[in-house]
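Predict both folds.
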Amino acid sequence: MTTQGTRPAGTDPTGPAGTHETADGRSLGELVGDIATDLTTLVKQEVELAKTELKTEATRAGKGVGLFGGAGVAGHLALLFASFALLFLLDSWMHAGWAALIVAALWGAAAAVMAASGRKELKSMNPTLPTTQETLKEDAAWARQLKNG
């Protein structure tokens, strides 16, 4: 162990550029190379994390949009059957009209359920990528520590 102000034997501060050694015996060039490798790895990991988070959010958005599409189809069928029901009721006052009205009410209920589910799914989306943001903050702190260290 060395005291402050003394150097271990064999470390000459007047050597050629790039030959100075750190406390762990690595040259400045090796340290810069290690930092560059670490930063490259870190950037690749952050990109992979962002891809994973975006894929998850895109899947959720697709599910919500699909439910809204289903609600649109169900709403169209409800309108169609309600129109037929009104036509039959007004035209002949027969039991077939009541049946068509019941079917229209069922399609209307299905449309309401799908629309509510789709809206809930879209509201639960979080496109801000919180995990990626947090790790980027940690990475920036780590880089500052290396720079100041």
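Second protein follows, with its predicted structure tokens after the sequence.
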Amino acid sequence: MEQLFSYGTLQSKEIQMQVFNKILPGTPDQLTGYKLKDLKIEEEFGMTDYFVAMPSENTSDFIKGIVYTISSKDLAKADLFESNAYKRVQIKLKSGVTAWIYIES
């Protein structure tokens, strides 16, 4: 099993149903030393505003999110869902859990 930390769209139950065909149980957690940055992504009907995690020079910065335990197959589905504006890396959360996260590519 894999751990996936979501700070945005993948927390939506509607998106989870579209991507994974199920609702994911998760636990609130935080990623310290990171901040969110605005990101514009071109979609079918034009540009859409999102945000992306990026390392911060300020170690007190943090991002709130949810950590999900998912299968390798579901992680591959998440990779397909995320655009090429993101890359997946492993990080350590405030709780000590090591998880995958999508950050600025």
